[in-house]
Amino acid sequence: MFTTDELPGETVDAVVIGGGAAGLNGALMLARSRRSVVVIDGGAPRNAPAAAMHGFLVLDGMSPEALLQRGREQVRGYGGRVVSGAVASARPAAPTATGDLRFSITLTDGRAVTARRVLVATGLRDVLPEVPGLVEHWGRSVVHCPYCHGWEVRDEPIGILATGPNSVHQALLFRQLSADLIYFAGDTDLDADARERFAARGIRVVEQPVEQVIGDTDGITGVLLADGTVVERRVLAVATRMLARTDGLEGLELPMEDLPGFGRRFVSGMAGTTEVPGVWIAGNATDLTAQVGASAAAGALAGAHLNAALVTADTDAA
């Protein structure tokens, strides 16, 4: 657990809910604009199981924890606060006499803070198939993204654990990284076109369902099929169901959207704006496929847009 700051007693310009790349970069933009900002961080980032993050220029190969630690330090360096805690409720409060918005944020331990604006950057959670042994290796030898983990598993015996139509595309992407690829179709549909494309690229299809993932402390070693056969594999790729984290945010009444084959997200517009005045969203909570760099960029844009809205409010009041 990281060192936590105290919640301020006075109203702050912005509360950022979520302390990942999107939330911290949004907070950084706000703090650098001389805004009072508090980041509420539950301390459970999506990429915590991974040893390193990739595809982020200059910071490629840095551990997720190191990135967050440096991010917190930088936000604090400009006067922002980072508070360890989980949000129990977030809801609009009565506006001021001049019409400026207010939001009440209460944590699960009873602490509370009032803010003029809110940036939601809660990220998402990955829902994996219920296959014994799978979760234990998640983020290491069980992966999902060829751009996040692909180089590290190149030329390994890779299995694709099919969960739906998106797994076909995933298989073709991982074929770029290894010639030894098996597609475990299970109970998913695989049409003639997909089978022809797989055959053309040398991707073997196994119809038997996977009953269990076999592994040790070094990672997975294979999969056990329903007929008792063990197929050697060192890596499994699986397309998860991605669900935006919504705990404690019901009071904001933010619109949500189901994306068939992917998951469920918060709906946002340009620069993370939402239908709820005074609330912005950035990162995986609204863009399910964003990597760390894209999430950080979205947080920066939302933070800048939020600051501009506060400038307008301050000028109107003046």
Can you walk me through this structure?
The longest helix is centred in the last third of the chain and has 26 residues, at 292-317. Helix 1 (21-32) runs parallel beside helix 2 and helix 1 (21-32) runs parallel beside helix 6 (292-317). The protein has two domains: 12-125 and 241-317, FAD/NAD(P)-binding domain (3-Layer(bba) Sandwich), CATH 3.50.50; 129-238, FAD/NAD(P)-binding domain (3-Layer(bba) Sandwich), CATH 3.50.50.60. With 318 residues, it is an alpha/beta fold. It has helices at 21-32, 64-77, 146-149, 166-175, 192-200, 292-317, and strands at 12-17, 37-41, 81-84, 87-93, 102-107, 112-120, 124-127, 142-143, 158-161, 181-184, 204-206, 210-216, 219-225, 230-232, 235-238, 241-244, 256-259, 263-266, 279-281. The two termini are 42 Å apart. It is elongated and about 70 Å long. It is 24% helix and 28% strand. Strand 9, helix 4 and strand 10 (181-184) form a beta-alpha-beta unit.
CATH class of the largest domain: Alpha Beta
Form type: elongated
Number of strands: 19
The major beta sheet can be summarized as:
7 strands, mixed
Low-confidence stretches: none
Oligomer type: single chain
Number of helical elements: 6
Strand content: 25-35%
What value does the Rg take, in angstroms? 22 Å
Helix and strand run: EHEHEEEEEEHEHEHEEEEEEEEEH
The CATH architecture of the largest domain: 3-Layer(bba) Sandwich
Q: What helical percentage do the residues reach? A: 10-25%
Instruction: Give the integer mean of the pLDDT values.
Output: 96
